[in-house]
Amino acid sequence: MTHTTESREQAAARVARAGVIREPVSVPELAAAVQDRAAGAVVTFEGVVRDHDRGREVTAIAYSAHPSADEVIVRIARETAEQSGLRAVAVVHRIGELGVGDTALGVAVSADHRAPAFEAVRDIVEEIKKRLPVWKHQLFADGTREWSGCA
């Protein structure tokens, strides 16, 4: 009789949460969602609206998303969850109008050890920047507005 077992390191991590949202992002809630008793590390990232862009004062950013954005962010989370040593992944991007200091992107990853957790968070952020169809409409202090590419 043959038995096949899958080691924990080979199984995909749990995707605790992934999506595009309109409500404020809570990174502590994302960190709680990825908690795992076997994890030795939880790493988070919080992307916030800053007060400047290329030397101009920013007062707000309105993020808008393509209808496929939710599917794309789920796909990025699932792909990342395949990395070895991870326990759970959570990632959300907020759309709508955000003020300076508001959180636009929240990421949390739990892993067996810190190195894969840091790497996974970095990978998620980079993939979001490359692939997520979300656009920024920046409002500047002088009253002008400007569209820029993906978030």
UniProtKB/TrEMBL annotation:
It comes from Actinomyces massiliensis F0489. InterPro entries: MoaE_sf (IPR036563), Mopterin_biosynth_MoaE (IPR003448). GO terms for biological process: Mo-molybdopterin cofactor biosynthetic process. This is Molybdopterin converting factor, subunit 2. Signal peptide: none annotated. It comes from the Bacteria. Gene3D superfamilies: Molybdopterin biosynthesis MoaE subunit. Pfam families: MoaE. SUPFAM superfamilies: Molybdopterin synthase subunit MoaE.
